[in-house]
Amino acid sequence: GLSQYSSDPRTEWDLSAYSTRDQVLEAVRNLRYKGGNTFTGLALTHVLEQNLKPDAGARLEAEKLVILLTDGKSQDDANLAAQTLKNLGIEIFAIGVKNADEAELKQVASEPLELTVYNVLDFPLLSSLVGKLTRVLCTRIKEKSNKESADIPVNTGPQLSPTDLKISAVTSKSMHLTWSPPLRPPKKYRIVYYPSKGGIPKEVILDGAVSSLHLSNLTSHTEYLVSVFPIYDTVVGDGLRGVTSTLPLSSPRSLRVSELSHNSIRLSWKAAQGATQYLVLCSAAPDGAED
Predict the structure, then answer these.
(1) Which residues belong to any copy of the VWFA domain (predicted)?
(2) What's the predicted TM-score (pTM) here?
C-alpha cells in the first residue's frame, strides 16, 4: 500500500489493490508527486487509521512494516504518532532525502537504528539504498515469521536475550562492557556502538562463549549508545542496550609563573595524564602595554 502526504494525507492504493508485482510497478510508474507541507505525524496517524485496517487489506497474521520517505522536518509531532505505531508492534523504517532532519528520523524509526534509518543527499541517490533495504526488510520479515515455526522462538526473556549490561572502566578513549548471557548461549554476539549525536556505527562480532568486550579508540567527552545482539543459527534475539559518556581529556594543573624578566617568563605545571604535547597561548592583558 502507498500514501502520499502534505497537510492532507492521501491514500494512493490500499494493500489489497494489487496482487502481482507488475501491477504494483505500473502503479508506481503512474504515481504523481504530491507537493506541500510536511505533516509527518498526521501521515503516520493516517496510515494507522486508514491503511493498516483489515478492510484496506491488512492481514492480522502478517507483519506490519511502514517505510517513511521524507525530504523535510515535520511541522507536527511525528514522534508521538510513531510511538503509537511502535507500541502496536508496527516497525517503522525512516528514509530521509535532502533536508530531512536526521535526529527526527532516529526518533521516529524502530530499533535498532543502524538497520532502520537511512539518509541520502538527493532523490536519485535513493537507488543506492534499494539493495541493502530489500535485504534488511526481507530478513526482518523472515525473522518474525519464523517465530512459530523455528525450533527456538524469537522471544524476549532470558532464554534468548542477554541481560544486565554493565559499562565500567570508562576513560576518555575506552570503556569495558560485560553482560549476563541468555539461558541458551548464542552462536555469536554482535555489538554495535556509535555516538548518540550522530556518527558511523561500528560493530564487533564475538564468539557466543564470550560475555565481555573492551571498546577503545573512542572520542573523548562523547555520549555513546551501545547494543548487544545475540545471534543464533536461525534467529537474532532481542538486543541489550546501554548508554554512557566517555570522560573529558585530562587537563594540566597547578600553573605557576616564575623567573620574570622584562621580556620573558617561565611557566610550570603538573602534567596532564596521557598528553603527548602541549599548546601554550600567550597574549597581553586587555589593559597591558602594547605587545
Answers:
(1) 1-133
(2) 0.51
